[in-house]
Amino acid sequence: MNQFANIHALEAWLDKYEINYQAWGSRNSKSLHNLWQELEAGEVQLKDDPPLRVVDVVQIIIRRGDLILVEAEQEFFNGQRRYRSQPPSEKIKPGEAVQEAARRCLQEELGVPPENITLDLQSHQQHQTSTNSFSYPGLPSQYNFHLLEAAVSGLPEEDFWRENLSGDNKIDPVKRHRWAWHPLDKIRFITSQ
What we know:
The chain is α+β, with helices and mostly antiparallel strands. The protein is built from 3 helices and 9 strands, in the order H-H-E-E-E-E-E-H-E-E-E-E. Strands 1, 2, 3, 4, 5, 6, 7, 8 and 9 form a 9-stranded mixed beta sheet that branches. A hairpin with a 4-residue loop joins strand 1 (44-47) and strand 2 (52-64). The protein is globular and about 50 Å long.
């Protein structure tokens, strides 16, 4: 649940901690409005003293031989691009189980029907990291990661673009994703969304 009455209260909170949000929305960062929408959707929480953005994320490992499927690049609706080299990842919504978020990720980002997804629940691993988010520069972020392996049928063997099917460009500024098969040692499992 959003702890701020409106976006102006969020601005006041950021000002209190001297977090410069005026430059957000340029280069490869998301905007203040995007953060507000994430708060409204319950995808993130903000904590005080010190200021901290907390995000629960599922990452899905899909193997093809010695290669792993990664999101190589994102193209935003405003034309900006961000290079990632990360496995399929999705923020976990309030009350959503990790496996539900993983299936939603594969359906929305890769267009995979549920019958083509087999999650390996025994592979579930968790880790936590804190970093300065690329999406919201200057706002410290803590990521609680859940890693799951999945067998997914019907994916292309070559690099491919996929339109973002999350259905709401107000919350997610990404228009489309470029997916590629990369060697495991080239993958970043710790993200800063």
